[in-house]
Specification:
With 300 residues, this protein is an alpha/beta fold. The chain is built from eleven helices and 13 strands. It has helices at residues 40-47, 71-74, 90-99, 105-114, 130-142, 160-175, 187-193, 211-217, 229-238, 258-267, 282-290, and strands spanning 2-11, 14-24, 28-33, 55-60, 75-78, 148-152, 179-184, 196-201, 204-210, 219-225, 242-245, 250-254, 274-279. It has a six-stranded mixed sheet, with helices on both faces. Strands 11-12-10-13 form a four-stranded antiparallel sheet. Strands 2-1-4 form a three-stranded antiparallel sheet, covered by helices on one side. Helix 3 (90-99) packs across helix 4 (105-114) and helix 4 (105-114) packs across helix 5 (130-142). One of its GO terms (molecular function) is ATP hydrolysis activity.
Length: 300
């Protein structure tokens, strides 16, 4: 579990994180979203004890990072995939990390296998593509078999196969009961990977929600098609729904879900050909949520 409580951080006159509170629970992938400069990296650095907050605190498993006895076995973090010693082989890079944390070489081979780098383990990491460096960074993250994982933009630089692989890896790590926090500025990616979403803008919390709740919140009514649309309109209105006629057969219904519409139609034996909830895509929902928090926007 990760707990962020009333966290604030300024750099000079810029407020990076502004009284931010949220909890990331185990057993789910939680997407950490926000436009550029929203404060995601700063928050992650504070959770990892790499930066000190001005006020508030961040706890991992109920404790501050600095007080964890075996940090690598409790938290795995991938902040910058390029942070490897280019002259070392992938194996040596991981081995040096492992040995300084009381982890043996067998585990190094295991994580290399897990991220698909076994065949290039003896190659210099400096020669790796960004995608391979991301895999190596993930291997380092997994070395201590930690219960909490924090990953900053892990799909950057990965090809579609790599993106799918990382998505499945994160989901399986969460299914094992781990706490997984993944930052991204791509809602489309998070919609496929995450169960929960924490959205921030200008350092403040905008939404702390499940993907499903967000979809429901941005629902745009229900599309209904029936050959007896007029009759159905009366029945739905009598039951309190708002109904807009779209064509002779098609209606847009607001204030009532698909179940209610189905029951009313069935009770009157009105045939219905289509009943479809219309929601904004999560991408649209995200843009709407963060519209006031974007610093730089292209003219339209
Ligand atoms: N070390 C620093 N010194 C000065 N300002 C900083 C520093 N780190 C972050 N900032 C500022 O704090 C704000 C939040 O930055 P942060 O990198 O945390 O955002 P982010 O959500 O991770 O953005 P991105 O998606 O662009 O990586 C920005 O305005 C940034 O310029």
């Amino acid at each position: 579990m990760i707990e962020v409580r009333e966290l604030s951080k300024r750099y000079g006159r810029a407020t990076a994180v502004d009284n931010l509170s949220f909890t990331v629970r185990p057993g789910a992938v939680t997407g950490f979203l926000g436009p550029n400069g929203a404060g995601k990296s700063t928050t992650m650095r504070i959770v990892l004890g790499l930066d000190a907050p001005d006020t508030g605190e961040a706890l991992v498993g109920g404790r501050r990072y600095a007080t964890l006895r075996r940090p690598m076995s409790e938290v795995g973090a991938l902040l910058d995939a390029n942070a490897v010693h280019g002259g070392r082989s992938a194996y040596d890079h991981l081995l040096s990390l492992a040995l300084t944390n009381g982890i043996g070489p067998a585990r190094v081979r295991e994580v290399l296998e897990q991220v698909g780098l076994s065949d290039v383990a003896r190659k210099r990491a400096g020669k790796f593509s960004l995608g391979m460096k991301q895999r190596l960074g993930l291997a380092a993250t997994l070395l201590g078999d930690p219960a909490v994982l924090l990953l900053d933009e892990p799909v950057n630089g990965l090809d579609p196969d790599g993106v799918r692989w990382i998505r499945e890896l994160l989901r399986s790590l969460a299914a094992d009961g781990r706490t997984v926090l993944v930052s991204s500025h791509l809602m489309s990616e998070m919609a496929l990977t995450a169960d929960r979403l924490i959205v921030i803008g200008r350092g403040r919390l905008i939404a702390d929600t499940s993907v499903r709740e967000l979809e429901a919140r941005f629902q745009r009514g229900v599309f209904v098609r029936s050959p007896r649309a007029l009759e159905l309109t009366d029945a739905l209105r009598n039951a309190g729904a708002e109904v807009v006629k779209e064509s002779d057969e098609a209606l847009s219904v607001h204030g009532m879900g698909v179940d209610g519409i189905g029951e009313i139609a069935a009770a009157r034996s009105i045939p219905v050909y289509e009943v479809m909830p219309r929601s904004a895509s999560l991408e649209e929902a995200y843009l709407e949520l963060t519209a006031d928090s974007v610093d730089y926007r292209a003219a339209r």
